[in-house]
Amino acid sequence: MKDGALDVVEFLLTTRVYDDERSLDENDLPPRYRKVFWTGGDDEDEPGGIERPLSVTNNTARSATGIERPWDAVSDLMFTERDEFTGSISLSESEMAEEWFLDRADDARIRSNPTLAYYFEGADGIDVEYESAREANRPIQADRVWIDSLLEEYFDDEEEEEMLDLVDIRAPEEIEMTLDDLVLTEDQEAEINKIVKAIEHREYLAKIGLREIGKLLFVGPPGTGKTSSARALAHNLDLPFVEVKLSMITSQYLGETAKNVEKVFEVAKRLSPCILFMDEFDFVAKTRSSDEHAAIKRAVNTLLKSIDDISLIQDDVLLIGATNHPDQLDAAAWRRFDEIVNFPKPDLGMRADILRVITRAMDIDEFDPEGIADLTEGLTGSDLRMVLREAVLDALTEERTTLTQQDLEDAVADFEERDTLKNMDMIEGDHDALVAGGDIGGSSDGGSGHDHSHDH
């Protein structure tokens, strides 16, 4: 069997079954196939979708399977054929193709493809259930193509597109971290597990009238993983992630701030089920207690009202607020949330765990994470990633990809020296510029990166 033949035959079988079985829909196709066949609507009022029949060519098969030369992989099989005029690839003998595939594919492969699970359920020697395969498959609403198609449909004029620039919308497939990548406190794990159960049992909660649930406030210093945890939750639950920084949405387009706030919540409701993450929530309290422009105050009042009106149970939107300054929140802000989740700086044991996680792909001689953790009291997960970043770069300047414990200890000392300089009052200018803002493969969380929930 040529390399890639099994993948290409699976693709051919899937497209044939999907074309024949009209009861199947987009959620029965693996995401890698949906991406290939997704098309925009014929006009601005029609959303995108997947239209039958599905056409298999070298291009579509290559995109779906990652096999560079799909036809070459299956051309010597007796049940495949290619139309030289159209370039389409198809099965000439379906039953032979099915037998060939079942002889070589394990149950796990079939379970990962709801279309084939539907078709082969009940076949001799095959232990698959269609319903469980479909349930485990990432829903179409989590795909980037679906998100973009919906946004184009509902926010198509220039003014509304400007508003969309104020929010960062990520598909779950675009979020690299998962909850398994994070080091969480027991309290954090407990609260996340509660909200996961609430999302799974939304219908039950609605039935018993428990609707005031699904509004979380993450509080803690910068770099302690508030954003990373929210994103990881979106990844694990296959939910689109809508992120907005409140200071930005209420500082741009001053005369339109209230309208922009309303649009953010409209975006979230359109993309539901989803997570709406509102960073810098202390901005609300600052604005309410200051002499800010009346337009911004109206926007903040609109924000508070919109929070009151949105619901996980009714609207399928999980709202997560985050603040580095909980002391600045007033009662009006606090009472909007049904759960408060604390993100403190990590203790020694958690710092050691964080170091183990973020060094998994690194080669370190005689690595002693507890020893480094003991030297880094008061550092966050974001800080620890910065330490590792500097150790790696310093080693690379010596043409080394293997680190030593001494490299890490030197990096800790350098970090502490730079941190001291950054906070000296006599230094003028942009203090933050003294410390590089990036981290190894991570993303921002007011300074936190990919695994910064590890700081918890």
Task: Give the amount of beta strand, in percent.
Answer: 5-15%
Biggest sheet strand line-up: 5-7-8-9-6-10
Quaternary class: single chain
Largest sheet: 6 strands, mixed
First-to-last CA distance: 49 Å
Tally of individual helices: 23
Unreliable stretches: 425-456
Quick check: average pLDDT?
85
- Number-wise, the strands total 12
Written overview of the protein:
Helix content is about 50%, strand content about 10%. It is of the alpha/beta class. It has three domains: about 5-135, no CATH class; about 140-340, P-loop containing nucleotide triphosphate hydrolases (Rossmann fold, 3-Layer(aba) Sandwich); about 350-455, Helicase, Ruva Protein, domain 3. A hairpin with a 6-residue loop joins strand 3 and strand 4. It is globular, with a radius of gyration of 26 Å.
In short, what is this structure?
This protein folds into three domains: 5-137, no CATH class; 142-342, Rossmann fold; 348-455, Helicase, Ruva Protein, domain 3. The radius of gyration is 26 Å and the shape is globular.
Task: Name some characteristics of this structure.
456 residues, alpha/beta, Rossmann fold, Helicase, Ruva Protein, domain 3, 3 domains, six-stranded mixed β-sheet, two-stranded antiparallel ribbon, 23 helices, 12 strands, 48% helix, 10% strand, disordered C terminus
